[in-house]
Amino acid sequence: MKQDISAMILAAGRGRRMGDMTNHTPKPLIKVNGKSLIEWQIERLVSAGVTNIVINVAYLAELIVDEIGFGEPWGITICYLYEPLDAYDTGGGIARALPWLSDPFIVVNADVMTDYDFSHLIHYSQAMKSLAHLILVPNPKHNLKGDFCLDGQSNIIDKTDKIGQSYTYTGISVCRKSLFANVYVGEKVSLPSVWQSFIEQKAISGEVYHANWCDVGTPERWQEVSNGY
């Protein structure tokens, strides 16, 4: 039986690499062809069947809440977790959100542009055995060394443990709540740090996505996706 799955959009970052573009606008609200980065994520999640979204916010948080609202235009529920700027990092921010999330749940960065179909991740989650499943892409020019490798059983392995093809994490994953069992509420910890010990246990899986994806982390990359969407 198909289960309902919720999603968390990570939107609490300052976006310092965007320079003046984020002086008065939080990065998730930067527009790509008339639509904010975070709206692109919401619409793709909704089209895949997600009906509950949690968004963590910090820098210029009220602007995000005012523009996005609480989900009515999409017929879903959106709730917000407010954070002091730079307080919890990605892993700590997710740990605070667990009471409002399904198990498992989708995680997506607010600042990526992609054609990825989240329904594939929802389908995978129905019988996932790993604690997290990461969507990877071939390394873009800004991250040629990559983040992770995969073994023959689709387990994520540290790239330092393998000579061969590495891949870049897209900012998209599905996670089980038990992944955060050792993270206390209020702790500042990155999501990759949470994964690390479980990677060593071969409890984190992944797959490679071969299509459009961009981490909109700089004005140059924003211009690139603006020309391509």
Give structural notes.
This protein has 229 residues and is α/β, with parallel strands linked by helices. The chain has a single domain, classed as Alpha-Beta Complex (Spore Coat Polysaccharide Biosynthesis Protein SpsA, Chain A), CATH 3.90.550.10. The chain is built from six helices and 13 strands. The strands form four sheets. The protein has a seven-stranded mixed sheet with strand order 5-4-1-6-11-8-12, sandwiched between helices. A two-stranded antiparallel sheet has the order 2-3. β4, α2 (61-68) and β5 form a beta-alpha-beta unit. α3 (89-97) packs across α5 (191-200). It is globular and about 45 Å long.
Number of domains: 1
Q: Give the low-pLDDT segments.
A: none
Instruction: Look at the structure and give the CATH class.
Output: Alpha Beta
Could you tell me the CATH topology label: Spore Coat Polysaccharide Biosynthesis Protein SpsA, Chain A
> What proportion strand?
25-35%
Could you report the average pLDDT, rounded to the nearest whole number?
95
The number of strands is: 13
Measured between the Cα atoms of the first and last residue, the distance is 36 Å
N-to-C SSE string, H for helix and E for strand: EEEHEHEHEEHEEEEHEEH
CATH architecture annotation: Alpha-Beta Complex
Overall form? globular
Largest sheet: 7 strands, mixed
Biggest sheet strand line-up: 5-4-1-6-11-8-12
Question: What share of residues is helical?
Answer: 10-25%
Can you say what the CATH homologous superfamily is? Spore Coat Polysaccharide Biosynthesis Protein SpsA, Chain A
Specify the structural class: alpha/beta
Helix tally equals 6
Radius of gyration: 17 Å
